């Protein structure tokens, strides 16, 4: 069977969970990666049965994730994370939460080339509620870092772990190509970068690793992230 890693699952209300569930229904084994600030809540909800309804598969059994890893996709290596964050409550006990750390853990758990599918279903724009024109440089760069560069880094670190013919997919939004008020903070810019990077990464990683890179432009959906901005 195929193994997938879905990055950006922290509840049962977003695209990541739905994609993971569809992959499991199709016969894949799925690991997920969760942002450390949301990890404990997610694990608790799962443990206490609060997600059992959404976990229900067509055959009546409940889906299980093979592994749930911590991931903060704004850090390529643990050394890149500020000491203060590494020692903070939600981060100090989870181990190496960087992209390189996640790749190392997946490799340690499953061996040399364990992945067929990698899904990038994460984004963050701290100033998303601000119009682009009012967005600070730091807010803009943070949106691009979390929402676009994270894919570049993930392809770099996970390319070597993927079987030939494997597939990477991310999620984008139409605000990259048309002006959509409310999708601010540099998130429109981040999605434009993500889409352009998808074409270049498909060229580069296609040649280097024999894998495909695609992005799906999803319609508006009231996930936790989207509800925060009233999409
Ligand atoms: P969501 O809140 O379910 O998923 C976003 C996830 O990103 C969350 O689990 C969050 O914890 C995680 N995250 C944030 N910062 C992170 C970081 N630094 N490292 C690791 N994880 C981090 O919301 P969603 O709407 O399902 O979003 C999934 C993807 O779909 C995103 O790329 C989003 O931009 C895209 N998308 C959403 C919509 C929509 O209307 N909901 C439309 C088009 C595209």
Task: Please provide a written account of the structure.
α6 (137-158) packs parallel to α7. The radius of gyration is 17 Å and the shape is globular. The mean pLDDT is 97. Helix content is 40%, strand content 16%. β4, α6 (137-158) and β5 (162-172) form a beta-alpha-beta unit. The protein has a six-stranded parallel beta sheet, sandwiched between helices. By secondary structure, the chain is α/β, with parallel strands linked by helices. The protein has helices at 15-25, 36-47, 52-55, 83-86, 99-110, 137-158, 187-209, 224-227; strands at residues 3-7, 29-34, 68-70, 115-120, 162-172, 212-217. It contains eight helices and six strands; from the N terminus they run βαβααβααβαβαβα. The protein has one domain (3-227): Rossmann fold (3-Layer(aba) Sandwich), CATH 3.40.50. Nicotinamide-adenine-dinucleotide binds next to α1, β5 and α8.
């Amino acid at each position: 069977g195929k193994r997938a890693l879905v990055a950006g699952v922290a509840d049962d209300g977003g695209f990541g969970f739905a994609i993971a569930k569809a992959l499991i229904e199709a016969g894949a084994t799925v690991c997920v990666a969760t942002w450390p600030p949301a990890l404990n809540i997610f694990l608790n909800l799962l443990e206490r049965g609060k997600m059992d309804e959404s976990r229900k598969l067509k055959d009546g059994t409940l889906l299980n994730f093979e592994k749930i890893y911590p991931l903060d996709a704004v850090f390529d290596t643990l050394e890149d994370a500020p000491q203060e964050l590494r020692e903070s409550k939600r981060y100090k006990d989870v181990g190496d939460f960087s992209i390189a750390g996640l790749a190392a853990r997946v490799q340690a758990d499953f061996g040399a080339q364990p992945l067929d599918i990698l899904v990038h279903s994460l984004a963050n724009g701290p100033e998303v509620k601000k119009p682009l024109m009012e967005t600070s440089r730091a807010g803009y760069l943070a949106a691009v870092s979390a929402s676009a560069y994270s894919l570049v880094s993930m392809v770099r670190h996970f390319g070597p772990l993927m079987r030939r013919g494997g597939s990477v997919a991310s999620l984008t939004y139409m605000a990259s190509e048309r002006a959509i008020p409310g999708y601010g903070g540099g998130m429109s810019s981040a999605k434009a970068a993500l889409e352009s990077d998808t074409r270049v990464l498909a060229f580069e990683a296609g040649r280097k690793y024999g894998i495909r890179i695609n992005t799906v432009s999803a319609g508006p959906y009231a996930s936790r992230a989207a509800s925060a901005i009233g999409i």
